[in-house]
Design a protein that fits this description.
Radius of gyration: 19 Å
Mean pLDDT: 94
Largest sheet: 6 strands, mixed
Number of strands: 13
Structural class: alpha/beta
Shape: elongated
Distance between the termini: 12 Å
Strand content: 25-35%
Low-confidence stretches: none
Helix content: 10-25%
């Protein structure tokens, strides 16, 4: 039986699987989609980095930088070079007060954390999910969604969208 089953291979799921493996537990990482990374979708086009999801992380706190150092990609972190946000109103761009863009996007952060700025990776946020993916790759099963989770014999039994069953001590 697997020690821990992680459902979802977005940034949080990849990080959970990574940290769980580092703690010495066996992990099975299930992702219903055909690719890992969740909403982080980085593309490169004609020398430009195009983000289809989050384009940065808050510089305050240091958790992402610490994780990047563990994964060997700390030297790929870039500081924010431009400041300010604007909102397209349908007719024109309207400058937003500092912090309003975060609130508009549903990001809950302290004003001092927002003032500390943002950071990203040289080739986009996909560098972080890519490094996490490389670290947990053997545990990953793509195209395997979870349709049910049930307590079973002191652990859990998960029914998958493909009709199979997996078991683990924790989910």
């Amino acid at each position: 039986m697997t020690d821990v089953i992680v459902v979802g291979a977005g940034l949080a799921g990849l990080a959970a699987a990574y940290e769980t493996q580092r703690a010495g537990a066996s992990v099975l990482l299930l992702e219903s989609e055909r690719r890992a990374g969740g909403v982080v979708a980085t593309e490169a086009a004609d020398g430009w980095v195009v983000e289809g999801g989050p384009d940065s992380f808050l510089a305050a706190g240091g958790a992402v930088a610490t994780l990047a150092a563990e994964l060997g990609i700390f030297d790929r972190i870039l500081d924010q070079s431009a400041h300010g946000s604007a909102l397209w109103t349908g007719a024109a761009f309207e400058t937003l007060p500092e912090g309003d863009a975060a609130a508009l996007l549903g990001i809950q952060a302290k004003p001092e954390d927002i003032e500390a700025g943002h950071r990203t990776f040289a080739a986009g946020m996909g560098e972080l999910t890519g490094a996490l993916l490389a670290a947990v790759q053997p545990a990953l099963r793509l195209g395997v969604g979870v349709s049910g989770i049930f307590p079973s014999n002191g652990g859990f039994r998960l029914s998958t969208t493909g009709g199979s069953v997996v078991t683990g001590d924790a989910v």
